[in-house]
């Protein structure tokens, strides 16, 4: 007797997997849209909320989370959700600015190292090495301190320390593209360097840059929050998320847990949203390297 | 033969360390000399109003601040080479002593956190990698990714809220119960105060190790030799046991030693949350109170710390991988 | 002992922009192997020969779906049965030392194969000793790592992995490329010996010359189909029927040495009709409309 071996039996799990596979593209696109909307929403929220709910209401002090105040209220009766949104929006804007500057530095140095090679490459690699030889947070503290602290200090420190991995990726990409056959061919055909850069380099590097930039945001934001938290970053008068969390420390032993927990969850969600966005973009550009 | 190789290796490593510290010295010096912070002002702090301009100039002269930059650099470098890191302004003690005593306090915490994160991370990574795509893998990945994007200080804060405030099974701060002199602290009290910060610190490392181990195991499971092992009828768990573990150990150990850098950074935040008097807390103090000598000392020390980690990783290669010989032949 | 008919394998993959696509990597493979004979499977890379081995051993990747009829020793070879038979009744001789764990001593690895085939630890150790002695491998080889082996030694160790088992069917996947001619000859003679012991041997190779040296029959694969199964002597006698087989034979250095013009179609763009139609000198309209099935022909001569 012979039987026919037919693997794709239509068990429920198999069907579910097939459904997932068929919808992966839509799911990915949907995730990108959703993540972007969520983050944009947080960033612009202060303009919609205005100053309402941020004034002291002594009758509403230290309320645990409820329907009226999802994140509870603080010791001055301010609504924590609104404070957190204000703080997170500020932190995101600071982080985005610093990360974008960092991405520019990274792209510039990566392109320079890959294109010029020689001593330019050597110096840039050396700088990267020095940066990697110090713990990131120590480096951040040192730079933020040296430029005089404050908002400016955080932005400079974060911008100066987050470009290394992107520079490496871009450098590798340039080197790889440069040595590829079609670039050699273009050279032989007498195409100018600019033409090659526009037609061969840019299409390869732009996706990398975009994904790299977005994956850089969460790091920048977390480091901004950390610096503000230990008191070296944004001034205590600004309601940045790191400041809000540092303040909550003082009220911990009184049992007002929501002061620390709720803003942290919001920060975590924002960071995860960036990660999610970056991963989904990456899988759209390059399905093989992404985690399904 | 082995001894000679070892000596060559040590010499190479020391030379590289010297070059690296030199680079860090130049970098730090340039950064601080362009800084808008006036060291004199920083030193005197609040009393600035009561000090005349003449006296300020005198202090500046005593510190050699009127000299050109390169001569100050050489001066400073000379002091460094003699092992003189200066005096901490905050602690009023030689910087080297402050670092030594603070690091001792941090070391145990770092060690516990390092071991915990390494072992748990490896275990989780192996399970997730072996069960790629399974819900257990998804769960571990979700956990690791969430941890990886959680702010360290917030995780520490959460642990503090749960274990110290709600359950009251851990102390809320510091390295010893209030009012107990450091020489009277018992071993258990010591451990009691150490454990929660150490756990908080280890949680950051777990995610990284677990995700890398998982990816590495997946690579190994897709390798030709695992294909062959499967063709021989080896079961998944035996493949992980005989082939996976062996081939994963090296990258995991490298990563674990490289994670010393992140661990150090994490300890700054964790010690801040737990008010644990370690080196990390001293770093924050130095920056907040403009204690330049201490800050510079800590920068050097952290570079040394990270470098030691990387060197240990290099040393572990030839023990685990017979293809790698010491000295890179 | 083994018979395969109309085997198909389809992969599911993702493209840029996450578009899903299906790749038919094996369209219709047919093969049969008797005990004590060496059947060579020849074809260019991408013709599906290695996948055939993986399908028999049940080690196809997860995104592969299999169809067709497989029979081993008179019973259907389901994926479950493959799983229980591999390493015991069916053994693989892999391509290169890359298929050995780089961080494990080779003696231990071969011993592990013997243990997996059902021998006790002590027995496995003695069978490793016996097998190494049979292939003139010094005892010290047991303690070497794969990267410390010479090409010839590596070959003999890989053959040893099949010999320590009592597998009735041995599949040798590309055992000869890039080797010194002496080593090639030695390796081939080892395979012939295995057949003499009564095992069935499938020799997967793209080297027709090597195949013709030891094989009883040769199956020619093209773009995931079996185009012809011929006795080895048919080649020199000129009894070849399929234009591709004939072209392959002509492309050998000692014959006309003309390469087969054109390229194998990629699994992404398989032609509608006969898969060889775009390279065939005798192509006609029927060929483009319909794929001809494999037919049993009476033996000539
Ligand atoms: S194209 Fe026609 S003649 Fe040529 S091999 Fe195919 S079926 Fe035979």
UniProtKB/TrEMBL annotation, chain A:
Residue intervals passing through the bilayer: 29-49, 90-111, 123-147, 201-221, 227-246, 255-274
Assigned keywords, A-Z: Cell membrane, Membrane, Transmembrane, Transmembrane helix, Transport
Boundaries of every ABC transmembrane type-1 domain copy: 88-278
Any single Pfam family the record assigns to this protein: BPD_transp_1
SUPFAM superfamilies assigned to the protein according to its UniProt record, in alphabetical order: MetI-like (SSF161098)
Membrane topology type: Multi-pass membrane protein
Example of a GO biological process term: transmembrane transport
Subcellular location, record wording: Cell membrane
Primary location: membrane
GO cellular component entries: plasma membrane
CDD domains listed in its UniProt record: TM_PBP2
Family assignment from sequence similarity: Belongs to the binding-protein-dependent transport system permease family.
Name the UniProt record assigns to this protein: ABC transporter permease
From TrEMBL, chain C:
GO cellular-component term (any): plasma membrane
EC top class, as a word: translocase
Pfam families named in the record: ABC_tran, oligo_HPY
Membrane topology of this protein: Peripheral membrane protein
The ABC transporter domain, residue ranges: 4-248
Top-rank taxon, per record: Bacteria
Major localization listed first in the record, in broad terms: membrane
One MF annotation (Gene Ontology) recorded for this entry: ATP binding
UniProt KW keywords: ATP-binding, Cell membrane, Ion transport, Membrane, Nickel, Nickel transport, Nucleotide-binding, Translocase, Transport
Xref: InterPro entries: AAA+_ATPase, ABC_Ni/Peptide_Import, ABC_transporter-like_ATP-bd, ABC_transporter-like_CS, Oligopep_ABC_C, P-loop_NTPase
Catalytic activity: Ni(2+)(out) + ATP + H2O = Ni(2+)(in) + ADP + phosphate + H(+)
GO annotation terms (biological process): peptide transport
Similarity-based family: Belongs to the ABC transporter superfamily.
Complexes and interactors: The complex is composed of two ATP-binding proteins (NikD and NikE), two transmembrane proteins (NikB and NikC) and a solute-binding protein (NikA).
Name of this chain's protein: Nickel import system ATP-binding protein NikD
Source organism of this protein record: Phormidesmis priestleyi
């Amino acid at each position: 007797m012979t039987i026919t071996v037919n693997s794709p039996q239509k068990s429920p799990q198999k069907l579910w997997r097939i459904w997932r596979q068929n919808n992966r593209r839509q799911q990915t696109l949907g995730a990108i849209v959703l993540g972007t909307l969520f983050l944009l929403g947080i960033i612009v929220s202060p303009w919609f909320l205005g100053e309402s709910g941020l004034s002291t209401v002594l009758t509403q002090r230290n309320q645990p989370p409820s329907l009226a105040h999802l994140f509870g209220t603080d010791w001055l009766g301010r609504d924590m959700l609104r404070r957190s949104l204000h703080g997170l929006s500020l932190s995101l804007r600071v982080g985005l600015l610093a990360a974008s500057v960092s991405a520019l530095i990274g792209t510039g140095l990566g392109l320079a190292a890959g294109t010029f090679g020689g001593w330019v490459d050597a110096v840039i690699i050396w700088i990267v090495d020095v940066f990697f030889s110090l713990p990131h947070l120590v480096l951040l503290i040192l730079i933020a301190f040296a430029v005089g602290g404050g908002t400016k200090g955080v932005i400079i420190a974060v911008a100066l320390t987050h470009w290394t991995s992107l520079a490496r990726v871009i450098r590798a990409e340039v080197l790889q593209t440069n040595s590829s056959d079609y670039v050699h061919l273009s050279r032989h055909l007498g195409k100018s360097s600019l033409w090659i850069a526009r037609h061969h380099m840019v299409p390869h590097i732009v996706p990398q840059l975009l994904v790299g930039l977005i994956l850089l945001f969460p790091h920048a934001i977390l480091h901004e929050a950390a610096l503000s938290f230990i008191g070296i970053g944004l001034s205590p008068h600004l309601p940045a998320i790191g400041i809000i969390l540092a303040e909550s420390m003082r009220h911990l032993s009184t049992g007002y847990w929501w002061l620390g927990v709720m803003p942290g969850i919001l920060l975590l969600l924002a960071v995860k949203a960036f990660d999610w966005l970056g991963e989904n973009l990456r899988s759209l550009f390059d399905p093989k390297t992404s985690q399904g | 033969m082995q001894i000679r190789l070892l000596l060559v290796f040590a010499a190479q490593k020391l030379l590289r360390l010297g070059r690296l510290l030199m680079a860090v010295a130049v970098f730090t010096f340039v950064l601080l000399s362009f800084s808008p912070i006036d060291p004199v002002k920083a030193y005197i702090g609040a009393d600035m109003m009561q000090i005349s301009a003449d006296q300020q100039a005198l202090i500046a002269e005593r510190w050699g601040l009127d000299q050109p930059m390169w001569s100050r650099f050489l001066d400073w470098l000379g002091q460094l080479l003699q092992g003189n890191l200066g005096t901490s302004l905050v602690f009023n003690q030689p910087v080297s002593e402050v670092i030594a005593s603070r690091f001792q306090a941090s070391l145990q915490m770092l060690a516990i956190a390092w071991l915990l994160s390494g072992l748990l991370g490896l275990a989780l990574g192996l399970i997730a990698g072996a069960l790629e795509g399974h819900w257990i893998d998804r769960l571990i990945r979700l956990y690791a990714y969430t941890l990886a994007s959680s702010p360290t200080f917030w995780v520490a804060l959460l642990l503090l809220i749960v274990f110290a405030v709600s359950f009251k099974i851990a102390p809320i701060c510091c390295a010893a119960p209030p009012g107990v002199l450091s020489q009277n602290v018992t071993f258990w009290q010591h451990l009691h105060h150490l454990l929660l910060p150490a756990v908080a610190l280890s949680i950051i490392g777990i995610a990284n190790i677990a995700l890398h181990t998982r990816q590495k195991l997946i690579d190994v499971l897709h390798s030709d030799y695992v294909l062959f092992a499967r063709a021989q009828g080896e079961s998944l768990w035996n493949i992980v046991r005989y082939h996976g573990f062996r081939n994963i150990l090296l990258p995991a150990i490298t990563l674990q030693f490289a994670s010393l850098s992140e661990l150090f950074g994490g300890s700054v935040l964790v010690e801040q949350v737990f008010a644990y008097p370690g080196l990390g807390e001293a770093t924050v103090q130095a920056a907040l109170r403009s204690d330049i000598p201490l800050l510079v000392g800590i920068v050097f020390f952290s570079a040394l710390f990270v470098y030691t980690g990387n060197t240990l990783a290099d040393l572990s290669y030839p023990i685990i991988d017979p293809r790698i010989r010491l000295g890179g032949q | 002992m083994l018979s395969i008919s109309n085997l198909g394998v389809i992969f599911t993959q993702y493209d840029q922009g996450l578009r899903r696509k299906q790749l038919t990597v094996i369209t219709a493979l047919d093969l049969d192997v008797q005990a004590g004979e060496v059947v060579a499977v020849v074809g260019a890379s991408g013709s599906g020969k290695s996948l055939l081995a993986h399908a028999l051993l049940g080690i196809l990747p997860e995104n592969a779906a299999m169809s067709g009829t497989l029979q081993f020793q008179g019973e259907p070879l389901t994926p479950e049965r493959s799983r229980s038979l591999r390493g015991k009744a069916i053994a693989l001789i892999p391509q290169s030392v890359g298929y050995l764990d780089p961080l494990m001593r080779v003696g231990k690895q071969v011993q592990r194969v013997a243990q997996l085939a059902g021998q006790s630890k002590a027995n496995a150790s003695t069978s490793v000793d016996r097998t190494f002695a049979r292939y003139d491998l010094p005892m010290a080889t047991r303690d070497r790592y794969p990267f410390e082996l010479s090409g010839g030694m590596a070959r003999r160790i890989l053959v040893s992995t099949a010999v320590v088992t009592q597998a009735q069917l041995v599949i040798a996947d590309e055992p000869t490329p890039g080797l010194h001619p002496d080593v090639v000859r030695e390796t081939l003679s080892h395979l012939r010996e295995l057949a003499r012991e009564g095992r069935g041997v499938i020799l997967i190779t793209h080297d027709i010359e090597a195949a013709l040296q030891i094989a009883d029959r040769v199956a020619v694969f093209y773009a995931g189909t079996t185009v012809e199964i011929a006795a080895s002597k048919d080649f020199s006698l000129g009894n070849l029927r399929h234009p591709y087989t004939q072209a392959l034979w002509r492309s050998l250095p000692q014959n006309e040495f003309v390469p087969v013009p054109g390229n194998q179609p990629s699994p992404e763009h398989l032609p509608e009709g006969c898969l060889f139609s775009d390279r065939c000198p005798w192509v006609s309209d029927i060929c483009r409309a319909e794929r001809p099935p494999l037919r049993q022909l009476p033996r000539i001569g």
